[in-house]
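User: quick one, fold this
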Amino acid sequence: MTQNQLAGAARAALGGGRQLEGAERLAGGTRKGVYRLTMDDATTAVAYLWEESENYWPAAEGDDDLTDPFSPGVGLPGVGLDLFEASHARLDSLGLRVPTVHLIDRERTHCPAELAIVEDFPGENLMDLLDRDPHAAEPAMARLAEGLEAMRGHRAPAYGKVALIDGGGSSRGTSCEGQVLDFALACLAEAASRDQRIAGARDRLEERLRVLAGAVRPRAEYSVVHGELGLDHVLVDSDGHPVLIDIEDLMYFDVEWEHVFLRIRLHDEYRRLAVDGLDEDRLALYMLAQRLSLTAGPLRLLDGDFPDREFMRRIAEHNLNEALQLVRSV
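Assistant:
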């Protein structure tokens, strides 16, 4: 997307006679374009753009199936923006800090993409702050823990994407653990088709997934789950409050899904967000499932033109080895 294409949207969003001086594509987005807009008076905002050319993921069957909690929801006009708006509304209703929305343009009035322009937080994210100064990060981490507790405490009538469930829809399947098993088996098949080490262990990995799924007891209690909550998806505002971004995958689901991802991403620092009362059987199943997802996903991204290829290779390699370790130790 060019600066000229974004200029009209920036003026409409930020007003005050301001003119767009610069538009910088930010790293990190894989399914949408993320651009920092800088106006001629140094005011900044961030533009999210959902459009085919901004999506690095190669197309796959089921990408547009919103009844699948793990579908990215791409391939249908307006879906990315719908997911964003519904997720933003739900988090805001629970008292979590999310970027203020300055402009929504689903009709592509200003540029050839579905567009949201939101509040900018130009400082470091919570991951970088925690690495640089753990003591300075403590207030934001404590507030994030409070926000996660609010998300955990909210109860939904069904599992699935927030946009789908809040709109009166329903997801396929009958349980979170059943959906995770199906997702993990699909990730296993995809990873096995791309790496011989996974292919060689495929039978053991599948058997382990089925054993772990069989141990999970039924539950009908669904919380709000970000779905990919690394601290790089948490910004910090000027008052030290954590701000959640990349929220389109927000869903109602087992809270254990969130905490497995947090454990993977935070390592020893997970203790700052740890909670009691999680289901150990779900944690075991979801850990192996996420290791396989974090192998298959990056390998699939490498089929396309994602620019930071070495970074994705490292993610895939690390999680591949962790998945294999989980069956070696049984």
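User: anything notable?
Assistant: The chain has eleven helices and ten strands.
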